[in-house]
Design goal:
The structure is a single chain. By secondary structure, the chain is mainly alpha-helical. It has one domain. It is built from six helices and two strands. A hairpin with a 6-residue loop joins strand 1 and strand 2. It is globular and about 40 Å long. The termini are close together.
């Protein structure tokens, strides 16, 4: 994997962590990010937080991720958005689902150096 791809993956990992797991609820193992915090604003918060999630998918497309994996990322983001708009239940769902971390993991798995393949 070339260094440009490695840097981009590191940036996308950082974005995913900020969105999904940057903060911890004291005294618990539960982590949450900006997606959960801003998602507390009904509908508008989930819509606003969908933008960086869609950007992550767009970057994955630009890196050459196959369509099937992009579709899986889109499904993760779509579920996060749709279920996140449900008052209270959506906020609880956000604490556990972590769509952006799942999407970053899809990227890492595809571009992992241990796979022995160059994809970029």
């Amino acid at each position: 994997m070339n260094s440009d791809v490695q840097r981009e993956l590191a940036r996308l990992d950082l974005l995913a962590r900020w969105l999904d797991s940057r903060f911890r609820i004291p005294g618990t193992p539960l982590r949450f990010g900006l997606d959960t915090l801003i998602g507390l604003i009904p509908v508008a918060g989930d819509t606003l937080m969908g933008l960086p999630s869609v950007w992550l998918i767009w970057r994955a497309h630009r890196l050459g991720l196959p369509k099937g994996k992009l579709a899986r990322m889109g499904l993760n983001t779509g579920l996060d958005y749709v279920l996140g708009t449900i008052p209270l239940l959506g906020d609880i769902f956000d604490l556990g689902f972590k769509a952006n971390l799942k999407n970053a993991a899809i990227l890492r798995a595809y571009f992992a150096p241990e796979s022995g393949q160059e994809h970029a």
